[in-house]
Amino acid sequence: MRRRAGALGLALAALIAGAAASQAPDRSLRPVLREDTYPVALPSLAPERSLRPLLRQGDITRNAAVSVRPAVVKPTPKGTVPQSSVGKVCRDRDLRGTVVGHVPGKLKGCGIAKDGIKLYSVSGVAFSQPAVMNCDTARAIKSWVEGGMARSVGRYGGGVEKIRVAAGYSCRTRNHKKGAKISEHGKGNAIDFSGFILANGDEISLLKDWGKGKKGRILKDMHRSACGPFGTVLGPESDRYHKDHFHFDIARHRGGPYCR
Predict the structure, then answer these.
(1) What's the CA gap between 217 and 219, in Å, rounded?
(2) Dihedral, 153, 156, 157, 163 alpha carbons, nearest 10
(3) Measured distance CA(253)–CA(194) in Å, rounded
(4) Is residue 21 situated within a structural domain?
């Protein structure tokens, strides 16, 4: 009996141990991967060393050629004067231009004897285009620009920054009439002005503003103040040839300045 009871006890103990082992949880919840689950190797998550595309040898050569391409330099137009050559003329630092010297005339009575200049600016006021004349005319222009013109405009529009030049030296007869006397333009004694550009960009025009409002009054004052520095002063009321400009010249008349 004792042997039988012992055998039953051992069998019961073995049964209980087996049941306990079957109820114990698995220590790892991850499935076991077989070798044939991923036949292809997984891609690496590490970034590439450089995201820039590789340059081919042809690209490098072409880029290098572009980087060393010389700048295109436009040639100076024929007949123009480099700005660096413009300087003091007529021994006056306020008169800026180039020396022309003797100017021969195509008609009898035309020409400039020896002191011809091409004037670009006067007392800091630029010309819209350079004008050829003699030094006496240039000095008369300076006297008027610094005196009568400056007083007439005052602070209006910030003052005159540029003068529109209608004509300088021109070998022709008066008003281009056949058989008439040689114009003072043909002797380097005259200048024609058609307008005045102000510092604020506005313009006082002989054709548009003569006799009209503030600008018209300024032009009247300019005309009046020029009578003295110049021997002849003609404006829009003188005749039909001067409707759109002032004509100033240094000719001397027996009865004094001729101003119309």
Answers:
(1) 5
(2) 0
(3) 24
(4) no
Residue 153 in any domain: the answer is yes
Question: At residue 15, what is the residue type?
Answer: L
Note whether residue 24 is domain-resident. no
Domain count, the chain: 1
Q: CB-based burial of residue 173 (10 Å sphere; 0-12 exposed, 13-18 middle, 19+ buried)? A: middle
Question: 190 Cβ partners below 8 Å, 6+ apart?
Answer: 133, 137, 167, 168, 183, 184, 232, 247, 248, 249, 250
Query: Is 63 a domain residue?
Result: no
- Strand-pair partners of 239: none
Cα separation, 163 vs 260, whole angstroms:
21
Give the CATH number for residue 230: 3.30.1380
Per the CB < 8 A criterion, the answer to whether 223 and 206 are in contact is: no
> 210, 216 in Cβ contact below 8 A?
yes
Per-residue pLDDT for the chain (260 aa), expressed as one digit of tens each? 444 445 555 555 555 555 444 454 444 445 444 444 444 444 444 445 545 555 555 544 444 444 444 444 344 444 445 555 899 999 999 999 999 999 999 899 999 988 999 999 999 999 999 999 999 999 999 999 999 999 999 999 999 999 999 999 999 999 888 888 999 999 999 999 999 999 999 999 999 999 999 999 999 999 999 999 999 999 999 999 999 999 999 999 998 999 99
**Domain extent for 129:** 85-259
Exposed, middle or buried by CB within 10 Å (0-12, 13-18, 19+), for 219?
Answer: buried
For residues 152 and 143, is the Cβ–Cβ distance under 8 A? no
